[in-house]
Amino acid sequence: MRKIAAHYIFPVTTKPLKNGIIIINDYGEIIEIIDTKGDLKETSSLEFYNGVIVPGFINTHCHLELSYLKGKIPMHTGHVEFIRQIVENIKTTEVDVDKIENAFLEMKKEGIVAVADISNREITSQIKQNNDIYFHTFIELADFFNNENIETQISVGKKLGKNFIKKSIVAHAPYTCSPEFIVETAKLSRDVYSIHNQEVKSENEMYIKGSGEIFNLLKQRNPFSDFNITKKTALQSYLDKISRNDLNILLVHNIFTTEEDIKYAENLSENIYWTLCPKSNLFIQNKLPEIKNFIKNNCKITLGTDSLATNNRLSIIEEMKNFTEFNFTEVLKWATINGAKALKINNIYGSIEIGKKPGLNLISNFDFKNNHLKKDSFVKKIM
User: Would you kindly state where each structural domain of the chain is located, as residue ranges?
Assistant: First the structure.
């Protein structure tokens, strides 16, 4: 049993506790939380930490298998050139499993306890057998608007899925997948679905007009014989067809999502989660989503790291530092309980509550006066 205290404990679902104490059994389960009202008395076997204690972080978008591409892609290329670079590097760069293993260990060190991870291959399957981090693997597919390809791709996805424990078959993005294909993959997902959403400026133009930079790039690969102009934004061309009460949907990136799209999605379903990957967005396009629109509409925001191909670290606290203008307690929800709810694992993770095993992180160099992270704030996993 351990007794752990700090200057502040942020349970997430309740108000912060000054000089609070958490008591944890030998299995990592929280059995008691003591509100000392700020008056911490001498207690036997008490571990006191300088900083704030928060639950383990939830990374709701990662491409662990691309970790070996760190340093291979130049910054600020824009998304179309980034796609070219990724495809070329996957073809020419030998997979380094040690780099993938090191990235996994980095996430553990950074206090990440659960990950929504994209897989196009089986190379991360062995690493994910490790129980130190919970993985929900999204087997990512694309039909490239060829209806004859739908059944074949789903067969490939089912075969690949046998290598992973907790998984969902999903479509990559609206600019590589027809609405019909998105619908068919969503039918296979029992609880959680993920899709890259409106991460390319010309993604909406593709659906509204049948033109644009991304449309022209993909047209080189496929004649788009089955592509239909919907005269709607990309999001509004498929979301209503896959929304259902038992399915949580993670919309990832959302750089070019308008407030109109946000309202459309929020009115359509209570199960929409908006996953932001700020460091990756800045790396590729030097642009962030309009965050205030998501906050204004009470969206359920989560955070992801994306891959080391577009990020120098797999660290949720580093992603949080992009939002210091917002209240820390709100941003902490994005990094913890919202992600846990999105993945339907909030019975164990996401908040400091009796009966849970959320993991505990210590944040040091915290700005207590203004209640937010500093540039040099860092995290250490203590449970």
Answer: 1-55+350-383, 57-349
Please state whether beta strands 17-18 and 2-9 pair in parallel, antiparallel, or not at all (unpaired). antiparallel
The single residue listed with the structure tokens 């577009």 is: 310
User: Tokens representing 30?
Assistant: 């929280």
Contact 115, 136 (CB under 8 A): yes
Question: Domain 57-349, CATH 3.40.50.620 — does that match?
Answer: no
Is the whole model's pTM more than 0.90, yes or no? Answer: yes
> What angle do the packed helices 278-285 and 79-92 form, to 10 degrees?
100
- The 10s digit of each residue's pLDDT in 326-364 is 999 999 999 999 999 999 999 999 999 999 999 999 999
**Helix H segments across the chain?**
79-92, 97-109, 150-161, 179-188, 203-209, 213-219, 239-242, 259-268, 278-285, 291-296, 316-320, 328-335, 337-342
Look up the CATH number of domain 1-55+350-383: 2.30.40.10
Residue 334 near residue 345, CB atoms below 8 Å: no
44 CB contacts (<8 Å, ≥6 apart)?
A: none
- Answer yes or no: same fold for 1-55+350-383 and 57-349: no
Instruction: Give residue 186's Cα distance to chain centre.
Output: 18
